[in-house]
Design brief:
With 472 residues, this protein is an alpha+beta fold. Helix 7 crosses helix 8. 40% of the residues lie in helices and 20% in strands. The radius of gyration is 30 Å and the shape is elongated. The chain has helices spanning 52-64, 159-175, 214-233, 279-287, 293-304, 308-315, 318-329, 334-352, 363-374, 380-390, 397-403, 412-425, 427-434, 440-451, 458-471; strands at 3-13, 68-69, 72-79, 89-95, 98-99, 102-106, 111-123, 127-130, 136-139, 146-152, 188-197, 206-209, 241-246, 251-257, 267-268, 275-276. The protein is built from 15 helices and 16 strands. The chain has three domains: 3-285, no CATH class; 291-403, no CATH class; 412-471, Arc Repressor Mutant, subunit A. The structure holds zinc ion. Zinc ion binds at residues 19, 22, 24, 36-37, 39-40, 144.
Length: 472
């Protein structure tokens, strides 16, 4: 029986206005080669200077990962040649900013701590573009953009754990404000290394690159585990190499043999002194850390009695969890709030291709709808329709109900008339019902609701229907 072992390297773009070692602007989709200067182009005689904000945000992230922060870390040069790297080396760290720590995930079968090896700061390279005609272009706007590289221990067992880890890690960097972590913008790049083995020793690993969604990570890991097992079963050996995920063909393609560490000829960056932190710097960052997603997840379940899957949707973005909690504070029941947010609001946003910040209804709107249900003005189905109609207008639910004449009918006479009509039109079904086919009751309720355009109070409909049918 084969066992898979997975470790993951993540490059998260640190959310700063300027680059890691110069004052150039960090901008997604800026005009090519406009945000560059002699420092990030690596021209001779230029000197890098450290972006203080980037260090602060990396420290904050390390604290949130429960990592041990090195009070003294060292910048180093990683030497290699590539057209997107004009300097011929990348500045990274040989003594990382932080080591150890963990991310706790929920495996669906209990909690598991995914251990972190280290977190270090480094700079990004430029970007190459290849045209169909065979021309290549390079944009250096990304050269020198600050990154945190976060490396996990190889303790991940399968693609599900990998996705749970990456999801939680992405939430953490967003919560502490150190990265926007938008995978499509390349702000959160994941490179899993994967091996399989039948015994305790780790097999030869391969690394997969070019994964720009969690779905891609999941598929690539599954693919690579199965490919390695098949390869070994055929009697062949696994080659240590870097693979590229081909989204179109849904397969990993060998890219290059993996370089050994000594091929990079790391050495201490001579133009930068050691990065020295003091307790005050760290304490300041510790104070700015909000409730983290793992803690929020546990608390929401305990405090509101909601399901794990529901809590997982709420914690994905802090503003969704906050919307939920404010709705409950305003007087909406947790049960209604969770349903309206996770299905109706997020569903409508998805359909309209809009963002959460586009919605105009606030927590008080949900509380008001809840009240309309409680005082029997409308039923749940109507409430859902009202909510969907006012999401992008912010109209008052009460006003909407009045303007569209949606108030529930509780008047027994009106409902009785509809029931009598129904019985006349469905004599055969009534006969069958009287002969014991009780499941027809649901059909009758549905027909009465239809006659009353969904506005009848379901409780009254049930009662009147039963009374009249029993009298016959
Ligand atoms: Zn620059």
């Amino acid at each position: 029986m084969y066992k898979a072992t997975i470790g993951i390297e993540v490059h998260a773009q640190i959310k700063t206005k300027t680059k890691m070692f110069c004052g150039c602007k960090v901008e997604f989709l800026g005009k090519s080669n406009t945000n560059i200067c002699p420092v990030c182009m690596g021209e001779p005689g230029t000197l890098p200077r450290v972006n203080k904000r980037a260090v602060e945000l990396a420290v904050r992230t390390a604290i949130a990962l429960h990592a041990r922060i090195n009070m003294r870390s060292i910048f180093a040069r990683k030497n290699y040649f590539y057209p997107d790297l004009p300097k011929g080396y990348q500045i990274t760290q040989s003594i990382p900013l932080a080591e150890g720590g963990y991310v706790e995930i929920d495996t669906g079968n209990g909690k598991k701590k995914i251990a972190i090896t280290r977190l270090h700061i480094e700079e990004d390279a430029g970007k190459l573009f290849h045209t169909a005609e065979g021309h290549s272009f390079v944009d250096f706007n990304r050269s020198g953009v600050p990154l945190m590289e976060i490396v996990s221990e190889p303790v991940i067992k399968n693609e599900k754990e990998a996705v749970a880890y990456l999801k939680r890690l992405r939430q953490i960097v967003r919560y502490v404000g150190s990265s926007d972590a938008d995978m499509e913008k390349g702000q959160f790049r994941c490179e899993p290394n994967i091996s399989v083995s039948k015994d305790e020793n780790r097999g030869t690993k391969t690394e997969v690159k070019n994964l720009n969604s969690l779905k891609a990570v999941e598929r690539a890991i599954k693919y690579e585990i199965s490919r390695q097992i098949k390869t070994i079963d055929r009697g062949e050996i696994i080659i240590q190499q870097t693979m590229l995920w081909d989204k179109k063909r849904q397969m990993a393609i060998p890219m290059r043999k993996k370089e050994g560490v000594n091929e990079y000829r790391y050495f201490k960056e001579p133009d930068l002194i050691p990065l020295i932190l003091n307790d005050g710097d760290i304490e300041k960052q510790r104070k700015s850390i909000p409730e983290l997603p793992g803690e929020k997840f546990d608390r929401l379940i305990k405090q509101y009695g909601i399901k794990k899957e529901e809590a997982e949707i709420l914690v994905e973005f802090p503003y969704i969890a906050s919307f939920f909690e404010k709705s409950v504070e305003s007087g909406c029941s947790p049960k209604y709030a969770i349903g309206w947010i996770t299905t109706d609001i997020l569903g409508e946003l998805n359909k309209a291709g809009k963002k959460f910040s586009d919605i105009k209804t606030g927590p008080s709107h949900l509380a008001a709808l809840n009240k309309l249900i409680d005082n029997k003005t409308i039923n749940m189905n109507i409430a859902k329709n009202v909510l969907r109609s006012i999401i992008f207008t912010g109209e008052d639910g009460n006003d909407y109900v009045k303007a569209n004449n949606l108030a529930q009918v509780t008047d027994e006479n009106a409902i009785e008339n509809a029931v009598k009509e129904l019985i006349e039109e469905n004599a055969k079904e009534v006969e069958r019902y009287k002969n014991g086919e009780e499941k027809l009751f649901g059909f009758f309720v549905g027909q009465v609701m239809k006659k009353m355009r969904g506005k009848a109070n379901p409780g009254v409909v049930n009662k009147v229907l039963k009374d009249i049918l029993n009298r016959r």
